[in-house]
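Example 3.2
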Amino acid sequence: MPSDRLAALLVFLICSKFCGIVHAGEPATLSPAKKALVGIVNERLESDWEAALKIWHFAEPGYQEQKSSQLLSKMLSDADFEIQEKVAGIPTAFITSMKIGEGKPVLAFLAEFDALPGLSQAAVPYRQKREGAQYGHACGHHLFGVASTSAAISLASYMKANEIPGTIKLYGCPAEEGGSAKAFMVRDGLFDDCDAVLHWHPSSMNSAGDRSTLARIAAKFRFHGKAAHAAGAPEQGRSALDAVELMNHASELMREHTPEGTRIHHVITSGGEAPNVVPEFAEVYYYIRHPESQIVKKLYQRLELCAQAGALATETKLEINFQGGIAEIFPNNTLARVTMQNLRLLNDLNYSEEQLQFALKIQGTLQKPQPITQLQEVIDKSGTVGKGSTDVGDVSWIVPTTGFTTACWVPGTPAHSWQAVACGGTTIAKQGMNLSTRVLAVSGLDLLITKGLIEKAQQEHLRRLGQREYESLLKPDQKPPLNYRKSPERN
């Protein structure tokens, strides 16, 4: 192990041993109502964790999450929620709701459950693929879905027992990783009756605040050429792979002339099968991002020109499989302050000796490990723009929305890594998930019982919008790309 990495680990160990792990939340400061609600949440902990582990093992890709979707919807139907299945033309998308009293206000929770390709991993602190699995929950959506579901069930149970009026809705949202499912759900008007929306996300830190994200457009560029013997008759071939390579080179040159904050990345998903055969089919999959949707639209038009140039130069046919686009998150400070306050109040994350040893081994594999004591912190992300993208953004332009993160991975662990998958199958993730469930539930209670709070959030939403209107980055007639995780079709 490099000396600097070893020195860093020694610092973390000393800090953890001698600085101590203090609870950031004091249960005594909770109101009686919140104490009771937290009690309901905690009674569900073991069954919640069992459900999360099942989804972690399912590890189903976007739009193919049949088992995961069914598990969550059954949890809700067993709790007497009404269910709408296969909404927005998506087999694994669903909406559940429970109305108490007059049914107003309408509070919604978001749940995700898709896994990522190429990140199969066992729950161990070293690289080891999980037998029989190609996908892995490297973004913690197995935790995301269960925590949101449990918070909805717990809050609805408390509302019924205490005759608090309102409607609790849980949106089962597939294919967040590139599939843009929520954008299609928004387009179908499925959020139009909501008064406020809460969500969260697993992370290596606890954070909340008035934060935005990057807008994103995804597309697959498919080139069709002519096969030929690469040595015997190369002049008769037209290489689809050459077209991909020319497009990629053009997009690399384009980077120099894009606005600050632009992100362009790609993978070649098909490039031929044998070097002595001129590839007649090749495909490259692109994401392009920026903090503003309108700029992303213009950047994508330029990216299409790069593709057309590749096709023109190689005499191949270009086919564009537009995957959809998602907007940046439209922040709401009123709601963000609620989740920030409750996250700080309830944060009691701590590592046992066993968890600490696991964490130190994971940190030995990280490029930028962070102190274990970061668990006690709650970072205010207000005013910042995250480097990721999420289809929560489309929801947030329609209805006041806020989210937060809890530390479900070892501090310093990047998302979309095998280390995140490994942590997600351990009790480190279990306690982070439980914290998020409690924060979601009590934040929902605040919104329901604090007079004028939701109205204040809605007024802020309208004030920030001003003359702007939500514009979807989907094409008007576009259907959900239900096969986007499957092998490229060779038309």
